[in-house]
Amino acid sequence: MEVFVARQPIFNRQQKVYGYELLYRLGMDNFYNNPAGDGDRATSEVIANSFLLIGLDALTGGKRAFINFTENLLKNEVATILPKEVVAIEILENIEVDDKVVNACIKLKKLGYPLVLDDFVLDERFKPLVELADIIKIDFMECDIREKMDVIRRFGSAGVQLLAEKVETTEMFKEAFEMGYSYFQGYFFSRPIILTGQDIPGYKINYLQALEEVNRPEMDFDRLEGIIKRDVSLSYKLLKYINSAAFGFRSKIDSIKHALVLLGIQEIKNWVSLIILRGMGEDKPDEITTSSILRAKFSELIAPKVGLQERSSDLFLMGMFSMIDALISRPMTDILDELPIAEDIKRALLGKECRYRDLYELILAYEKGNWEEFSALATRIKLDEAEVPKIYLQSLAWANQVMQL
Question: What predicted TM-score, i.e. pTM, was given to this entire model?
Fold first, then answer.
């Protein structure tokens, strides 16, 4: 059975990833379309398969996994099969709060499981669960300013941590941060704050120049060597990489130029793009770099499945550069004007009509767990949905490996 899993990052106040909410879909038919009761069974199977077949560490990179639980799953104590050290139990807002649910939550609390109230609303019926909750999630898209503040006033000093979800802009993040929320969920980190009238830091200019060079139709090794030599970190990482066991050269490579020649054009392009992207994001949330690398590999691996094998390198760059505006705080249009990459890749990243836009939108839909949109786009580009979970997990494993370099 194929298991569809997406994840959404949850950040702390330092904009470091605290955990991921795991978003599930069972095979080709979304389980929430099944008759009542089947959803519980399907969710249980998906959770079990995700932990046993995929591996939690592969999905979350060691961060805490937030998992939604229905009323029946709570009562049947399904959560107790999961490791309490790395999961958080999300209690859905539509459950009936009766004695069995409360007792199940009390047991989970005693066992050490963090309890999270999802899409919380101020309602007296939730009082028994509020007293047990470790985290309360507030929908920042749905709640008005009064409701957001009421939650802070009532629970902010009661030992409960508050999580602002659906935080989609930097302005919403700032609002939640200043109110005192502890955690933040959403894609605000991918929306850049443009620093008008300010220069790009010098080291990022070097990085941008290197990206420009490796993506020219005719790469100039001498010019690229000069750019790398200007950056001690890049020089060190290149020599460490080329001298690693993966290449197995008998003699030590101690020349930047020699290392570049041995790598070859395509390997240079990928390596330089990855390392420089990480360097650009040193002062930004790690998730920006991780998501960019994940999208790059995801795009590359999907390419041959939709008849675009010959463009896999370009599609790798499409994913790689999909959040570069957030990394260097400049408008995407300005950055793409300076990068000599394929015009249709630029158009896809700018949301304009082109042959790659559907593939790019499909990747974003999968990432966010928008399964209906994902299915529609997969049909449009003639992609077999059943192949995608394996591709996603391959990409995720590769991204995790790269982030450890």
Answer: 0.77
